[in-house]
Specification:
With about 180 residues, the chain is of the alpha+beta class. Helices cover about 55% and strands about 20% of the residues. Keywords: Membrane, Transmembrane, Transmembrane helix.
Length: about 180
């Protein structure tokens, strides 16, 4: 068998000083570390894939559970929102409504000392007062106070007469429209 020969294709003279030699030297030393670092990054990415897949599967399970919870509460939420809307409408109506107790209190403050009311009625937009006055000046003063009262308009004196059964004073009936 013939003797083995070594074949070296790289020239031996001044290889390390030539451009090709410097590049080969850099590739052998630094390039090797670059390849090792790249492989390390690839291995870390491969191993992190298992962790991230597990985390993703857990997130999908959580989303399914939360969707089921939300789906079960849809009917209740719809009922609750409808009730809230109805309550808002009721509040709007109550704010715009003029309460009879307020009108009664304010009109009773307008009464002079010798005028008394025997009947007081409030309908949707109408007000009727029935009473008597012991003097003409008391009735006149009450009428002037009512004309200045800003929550009513279309004031009219429907009936005025002497009191019956020999009682002193003047009976009257006043009607008005309530402003909104």
């Amino acid at each position: 068998m013939p003797a083995r020969r070594k074949i070296n294709l790289l020239p031996q003279e001044n290889l390390e000083y030539s451009s090709l030699g410097k590049f080969l030297q850099w590739t052998i030393s630094v390039g090797r570390w670059i390849v090792v670092f790249t492989e390390l990054v690839v291995i870390c990415a491969f191993l992190s894939r298992f962790y991230l897949d597990t985390k993703l599967a857990n997130l999908f399970d959580d989303i399914k559970q939360k969707k089921a919870i939300v789906a079960s509460a849809v009917d209740f939420e719809e009922t609750f929102r409808n009730t809230q809307d109805k309550m808002k409408e009721i509040r709007k109506l109550m704010v715009g409504e003029l309460k009879p107790s307020i009108i009664i209190t304010e009109i009773s403050n307008l009464l002079p000392g010798d005028v008394s009311l025997t009947s007081f009625s409030v309908d949707k937009n109408n007000l009727t007062l029935v009473g008597y006055s012991l003097s003409k000046t008391g009735l006149q003063s009450f009428w002037q106070n009512l004309t200045k009262y800003t929550k009513i308009n279309n004031l009219s004196l429907n009936n005025i007469s002497s009191r019956k059964e020999g009682l002193p004073g003047i009976s009257f009936e006043v009607s008005a429209a309530i402003k909104k």
